[in-house]
Amino acid sequence: MLLVATIFGLLQPAFVIATGVLVQAAATQADIVLPLTLLSAIFITTRLLGPIRDELGLAMWRRVDQSMGDRIMRAMSGDPGLRLVEDPHVQDIVAQAEGAITGSSVGQAARELSLMWSQRTFGVIALGIIARTYWWAALLLLGVHVLGYSAARWHWNEVTLVILGRTDQLRRSYYLRGLALSSRVAKETRIFGLAGWLVERYRHGALAVLEDVWSRRQEGWVLGVGIALLLSATEAGAIWIVASDSLAGRVSLGTAVAVIQALFAAGFLSSYYDPDWAITQSAVTIDKVQHLEKTVSTTVSQLPGHRDPGGLPRGEIRFEHIAFTYPGSSHVVFEDFSLVVEAGKSLAIVGENGAGKTTLVKLLSRLYEPTAGRITVDGIDLRELEPAAWHKRIAAVFQDFTQFELSAFDNVAFGALHAANDLEAVERAARQAGAIDVIRRLPRGWATPLSRELSHGSQLSGGEWQRLALARALFAVQSGAAILILDEPTAALDVRGEAEVYQRFLELTSGLTTIVISHRFSTVRRADRIVVVEHGRVVEDGNHPELVSRPDGRYAEMFTLQAERFLAG
Fold first, then answer.
1. What architecture does CATH give domain 2-300?
2. How far apart are alpha carbons 464 and 466 in whole angstroms?
3. How much is the pTM?
């Protein structure tokens, strides 16, 4: 691309010189065949190279953006935990790197590079053409162009700093725009009449940023006009002198034509427009991506753990005096939490919302590291185990489980990618979770995309999605996971569906370490052991008959409150 851009940049001053030669030949009535042929050849070559340069630029655009996208995805997926993906600063960097904030990606800058390179090549040689006859004019123009370029670059940079400084605000506005355009939330945005509100709030947020940009732009208009006037006066003066010398016979007409064209071409050296800004901004973006990669690399390297967790747990998992606070928050979730989870048995965790039940699961999964204390697996500190390998030992159905808008097969096979080719196991997991009938009703069976927004796609109900999530967890268990985590796993199922799923789970997970978080006591009571968590501590521990028999117990109180709703009819 740069080679073609360089040739293109050289052909343009060659066209200027050839024009001067042709004019001089015509003025002196000399033979014009050779200069006309040369001029025509340069013109045709330039016309042919233009589309080639543009196509190469488009190819660069695609390849560079693909490369940057790969780097960002690899960086964001490199951390086995959630700290980086939930970090607002990191999300700002990702938005900037993707070009979502400035509207210009690194790939677009790569495309613009060929145009800028051609123009700069033309401008530098144009100064050389001027210097051959008027060296002082070339030096004067160079100084004015450098001044103009520097001032424009400074001003554009000031405006860009305003935009980048409002990244978080712009991300909020883009989120509102996404809600207005999304089919996923369309039911509620229509029912509650939010569509107009979303549009207006997006417009208000975007305009707030734009007003700051416009204000900064207005601050630089006096400087811009002053430099433009200085440049125009310098060029006008030079043209006047060239014209006077030509009329006086001090320079030939052909030289005058070439020099005047070169005067205008040299103006490329002072221009700082979209291509220049895009390239400057891309350099900043690449620095931020490299910083992101370095941050992730440092984070991962600081994560201890290289031991193979194969076969664990055999005896128990211990939470020993755990303290934890989410990054960026002052709310203490756990201050001194301790709990023993017996391997091969089922444990139910109950408690009010905000008690820290799901946070325990995240800590056990090493999605977060404890602020203090430690978690041990058969006496081995969890931080000594290799994180990715430990993840393979865990199968989880979270309360906010992901509904992948991919094929039904992928939604189950994602439970264990290393075993995704085992088609029989995938189907067996779906059958065990009661999802096989759902699959059979789909228009393309396992290959059906689970979204109405995709061709030949289909949308599932909440309960059907939950059965697929359960099947995904079961497939993980079949493929080697030893710990099954169920966080409100049957919230979208009716009473019969819940009873059916849990009856199967009791059979299928016998001898498996199972942790269940649920508000439904019909689910909880089946566990081998139940703990009640409040204010970051275990306040009760036992099985269902033991806990419900305590007249003043917290578990008994919650169970009675829920049972009374059914007894009341």
1. Up-down Bundle (1.20)
2. 5
3. 0.79
